[in-house]
Structures are given as structure tokens and as C-alpha cells.
Amino acid sequence: MQLIPPPIGPLFGKLLFSLVSAVPIPHLLLRLAGTRVPASSGPNWLVHALWTLNPLILNIATRGSSEALLVLLVLGSLVALRDGRLRTCAILWGAAVHWKLYPVIYASSILMELQRMDGGTFWTRRKVVFGLWSGGTVVGLSLVCWLIWGQPFIEHAFFYHATRLDHRHNFSAYFYPIYLQMFQPSVPGWLGLADSIARHPLAAFAPQVSLSLVAGFLLPSRTDIAFTWFIQTFVFVAFNKVCTSQYFIWYLFFSPVVIPRLRISLARGVLCLGIWIASQALWLAVAYRLEFQARSVFLPLWCASLLFLVTNCWCVGVLLDAYVVAPPPPRSKVE
Question: How is it placed in the membrane, per its record (predicted)?
């Protein structure tokens, strides 16, 4: 998403998103990491540098993509949830869901966190109030956009995700099956029904949504909420039917908070990061032959996508084993 047309000049969006990346986001990351601002110690600088000096983050922000605003909303809601400011969390989370739908996967972990606050009780006034504020935010913002843009907003903001079939090559392991099914005739009979279900765009949502929601229900009792959101997003992106480098930001912005809490040897950490980067490099090398040399390498490219998926799953396992739960911060008065 970009600011089109720019309200001031052609560089307005780039300046805005770069400013958001440089100031409020590092501040929130430092708060989540349990450090003080201004930074004066090693861990503070590590948290700051992992975000502000990340080349992928710099590239996405300076090219005019609005991921920085999404990150700001998600981080703001996470800080508010951790501090017990539930109405603020609900509004920011609702705004994030309106901005891009994927933060809705955090609903399960938010539910478990609220249940923990309520001593294990499931039905509480706190959950109802949170649901009303967050749901009201999503509905209110969507209504405003609908009044401005009408039915095209509904189509592109909601229905598009249910019907999208992207056959262009990307990191996702789904791209090649989607590409093939576009040229295959439908099968009659009962097999045709099963084939239609498998071909439906919503079928690809089942693995990623299931894994993300299950992680949201199980991890909060074993880790902290920041790491839970990180794993939920990591899994969601890895199993998404469309996966590009821009989507990596959705979970990489948690890294300044997560990495200092990893109890892992330097060699194993470098190995994990190296394999993750190498699997991308392999995919990009094959994709270059397809995109720029017009070589028919769809099958090798799909194999590279599968390897990248396996690598992501392995990395998730390493992170789950290595993460050390942060001590709970002192809570302010709960709203």
C-alpha cells in the first residue's frame, strides 16, 4: 500500500514511512525489550540496531511501502496489552486488522492473555469490552472507507483475499500448484467435488490459519505474548499462499525483542540465520533464470520453495527451543 496521490509531494510517503521507522517504532521496541530510552547500554543498542540498520526494513520504508504504519499499530497494541491498557490495545489492534487483515490471527493469543489476567475464567466482562472496542474499531473504519469508496473497497479489502489465486512465482509453495491448476480441466463426479475443494482459494488458508491459531492458544501459557505473536506471524507467512520478501517484515520487526532472549550458541544462531538466508538465495537464483533468462525452471523453482518452507519450519523449532521467557513487567492499573 502506498500513498497515492501524495498529498504534499512525490517523496511524502517515503519520508513519512521512514520517519515512523526511525522514531516511534524503535521507542516501542525498547519498551518491549524492557530497556529505557535513551539507550545507553549494549542491549539497548542491539535492540535499536536490529531494526534501524536492517537493510530489508530500510528498503521497504524508503521505497514508499506503508508496512511501517502497520508495524506501529501492531507494536502499539502489543505494548498496550502487556501494560494492561486494554481499550488502547483493542483500538490499535482493530486499526491494524483494518489496515491489513492478517493481525486477526492474534485473536487467539489475546484471548488467552485476557484469560490469564482473569485468573483462568473464560467468560468475563474484560473480554466482552475488548471485543466491543476492537470490533467497533474495525467496523467503524471499514464503514468510513465504504462511504468514501463504496463497493470497490469491500471487494479489494475483504473478498479479494478469499478469491485470490496468484500463479506468479513467489516464495510460497502454493504458487506452482496454483499455476498448474489454471490449465487443468475440472474432474467430474465425486472426485470433481474433492478437486473443486482442493482448488478453492480458501483451501490454502486452512494450514496457516490452523497453525497460527493453535500457536496462539498454546504458547501464551509457556512463553510471553511478544514471542507468541512472533511465532504466529512467522508460521502464517511461511504457509501463506503468497509469500514475498515484504511479508518477512511482519515477523522480523519482533526480532529486536526476541533475539536478546534466545539461549542459543553463536554457532547455532549463525547456522540458523545462514540456512534461512541461503534457502532464499537458492530460490532467487532459480527465479532469476525464469524471470530474466526465460528458462522453463518451474519445477526446480517449486522445489526451492518447498525447501524454503522446510527451512522456515526448522527455524521455528530452533527458536521455540531457544527462547527464554522474559520476566513479567510491572503492570499499570488495568483499564
Answer: Multi-pass membrane protein
Handedness of CA 129, 134, 135, 136 (dihedral sign): positive
Amino acid at 311: T
pLDDT in tens, 193-251: 556 666 666 777 888 889 999 999 999 888 999 999 999 999 999 999 889 888 999 99
Question: What is residue 231's three-state secondary structure?
Answer: helix
Query: Which among 166, 248, 220 is positioned nearest to 328, based on CA atoms?
Result: 220
Amino acid symbol at 28: L
Return the pLDDT at 36.
38
Place of cell 518477512: 248
The list of the chain residues with pLDDT below 70 reads: 1-9, 35-44, 165-167, 183-201, 326-335
* CA 190 to mean position of chain CA atoms: 37
What cell was used for 22?
A: 526511525
| Residue 302, C-alpha cell as written in the block | 517449486
Distance between first and last Cα of the chain: 33
Kindly state the cell numbers that stand for 211: 497453525
Q: Specify the residue for cell string 537458492.
A: 282
Contact 46, 261 (CB under 8 A): no
Looking at residue 96, its amino acid is A
Cell numbers for 76: 502499539
Do 297 and 201 contact (CB within 8 A), yes or no? no
Closest alpha carbon to 252 in 64, 52, 78, 92: 52
Are the C-beta atoms of residues 35 and 329 closer than 8 Å to each other? Answer: no
